[in-house]
Amino acid sequence: MSRGGRALVAFFLANLAAVVLIWWDALDAHAFASLAGILNAAGRVTALVGTYLVLVQLVLRTHVPWLVTALGKDRLRAWHTNNAYLVLGLLAAHGGLQIAGYALADRVDLLSELGLLLMRYEGMVLAFASLALLGGLTLISLERYRHRMPWPTWRALHLFTYAAVLASIPHQLATGSDFIDAPIAVAYWTFLLAGTLAILVAARVPPLWRAATPAGPPHPAVVALGAIVVAAYLVGTVRLSSDPATVTARSRPPTDAERLASSASATPAQPAAASPVSTGTLTVQGDAFETPYGFAQVRITLSGGRIAEIEALQMPNATRRSKTMSNSVEYWLRKRAIEAQSASFEILSGATYTSEAYQASLASALRAAGRRP
Asked: Cα–Cα–Cα angle for 47, 52, 57, nearest 5°?
């Protein structure tokens, strides 16, 4: 291998290490406290590494002259083929590990968990469609099938690789907990996206440009600037800091007067009986607890001494991303709390701050109702 080839391999490995370090840095303290947490953590790292290798795959298939010179045509072709199988395996493992991890945490079977994920998580349907499309493209790339179709047809079908990548982006932006208020991770992945896009544009646009106009290809600086702008747009929903335009009346803890008014409006069936053995209905509002992204506060309804309903009065929403995450996890927090009939339940991986604040507010409401949290 040439010196340029060795430099490219070193660059690839350095970026791979950076991807894994970003995953490790984003792990919460409880990530490995249970089998469900371990599976979810493994699912996240396979997703990140698989996505990185997708970008590598897009670059490998350009066969730009400097890449062919550095690696050699045969080695480049072999790496392109093997990387395709590795990408598919990692992304399939990501889906399987996450479904299994969430199913264990929610105490449901795998099919039920799959249905819940598809219904309640933004971009999930497109993500599964993207994985299926990548699987199909990998299948037709096998030697036994590839040589049965004309070269123009096979080449045209491979253009759907770009469609598969684009279809996966909403899922990554909406539920990628490694990017929530993580400016270093966002900046790094913007760099990866911009670099990949610049290479693709430089490899694909000039031939089309020359065919369409005699003016020649665009200047490399224009290509690079366009790639950065597009990549920044793709990750634009991941805010580096609070966005005032998306915050409507930032949540605050209730005042003493509001808390007293809330307590006065509670409606116990028996005036002196706010205990676990009460047969009436009692509604109590918990205290608000602050996270780095806003406050969490709940109101509970007890029936016969048991938690019958939990209403989230406030959830962290200081940024667009934290608001999206709160909308995704609130259902699961409520479900786990009602199943546990207490504030002692397993927190959600990737939503530690929100989970702990939710638990604290729930515990305060239970104590106010005369129950042990």
From this structure: 120
Number of domains in the chain: 2
Q: What's the pLDDT tens digit per position in 199-236?
A: 888 877 766 666 555 555 555 655 555 555 555 555 54
Tell me whether residue 246 is in a domain: no
193 within domain boundaries:
no
| Terminal Cα-to-Cα distance of the chain (whole angstroms) | 64
On whether both 14 and 120 belong to a single domain, the answer is yes
CB 36 within 8 A of CB 98: no
Which range has the worst mean pLDDT, 207-216, 242-251, 315-324?
A: 242-251
Spatial CB neighbours of 88, under 8 Å, sequence gap ≥ 6: 134, 135, 138
Range of the domain at 352: 256-368
Residue type, 261: A
Q: Is 126 within 8 Å of 175 (Cβ atoms)?
A: no
Q: The domain spanning residue 283 has which CATH number?
A: 3.90.1010
Helix then strand then coil, % of the chain, to nearest 5: 65, 5, 25
